[in-house]
Amino acid sequence: MTPGTFEEHIHRLLELKSKKKFREALAVGEEALRVQPDHHVAVALVAGLRGRTGNPEAGLELISPFLSNRPLSVPMALAYGRVCLSLQRSQDAIPVLEQTLAALPVQQLQGRYGIYFCLGDLYDSIGQYDAAFACYEKANCKKPVPFSQEACIQHFNSIITAYRPQLLAEWGGVRVQPPRLLFIVGMPRSGTSLVEQMLDSHPEVQGAGELPLITQFAESMPSILNTTRPYPECVSAVNRDVLERFSGQYRDYISSLSGGKRYVVDKMPGNFRFLGLIQAMFPGSRVIHCRRDPLDTCLSCYFHEFNASQNYSTETGDLGLFYQGYQRLMEHWGTVLSLPVFDLTTKR
Prior knowledge:
Layout: H1 6-18, H2 22-35, H3 40-52, H4 56-63, H5 74-86, H6 90-103, H7 109-125, H8 129-139, H9 149-162, H10 165-171, E1 180-186, H11 192-200, E2 205-207, H12 213-225, H13 240-255, E3 263-266, H14 275-281, E4 286-291, H15 294-302, H16 316-336, E5 341-345
């Protein structure tokens, strides 16, 4: 690595990590550490990636020289908490994270939320469930985007109303081109990542991660159609030309990711909202619908730190309402789609 590229390597590491390409990200991180071995953010990132790739002992070894400098920074504390969790050493990490939390300024909200989520996992791992839930409640005080239960109900109702059998019959299907597409959908925390990993291990399958393209197409649909009606109310104005154009753009993009393999997997769980579009644009595709016990699913969402797009996950009542909407929509798809959808019940 040439001098002066440390920041570029960290940027690349974060990009790969966001795509869940942990081994590639680790290799980039190790290179960055050769230039700045004491950079606490780089140390934390690499330690965490060592844990994610099956070597938490090496992650702990990397962090250990920094443990005497208390309180730890937020990235270092979180990395320490995660590797200790993997090594069943939660009792060691809890006081360290509590100390980091106590030293954080009240206004440093993002760091506090991250520490609370990690402490929740640590307490949960040793059976201190009341303490764990209290941490998750504090972590979920963050409201990145206000959630409206009324708007949520209306959204699901609008999709069900818009996608009538007559509309889907009028659309038909666009021309099929290789590679073949596999869509993994479902609620977050329902096992979609594990299923993608299993499929990606097949020599003819390429996992592409969570692609936002179909969501972006739906959001841009009103401007494409030059209408003031939002999605999904505007789908009645969509014609084959619009579907053909987007289908071609999508296929051009994933062809660059396929590595020449026969199948490509799009693992965006929220694509369950767009199965009507997927049937019309990719008639040769297949869908795997991951299902998990509703209580396990919702609690796992509540215990997980999401971005603003999952703003329903910070309140248990909101979570339950969203889950009911998702369930109703999947039942609707089952009555109107001819697209093959395989229901896979997972346990995590």
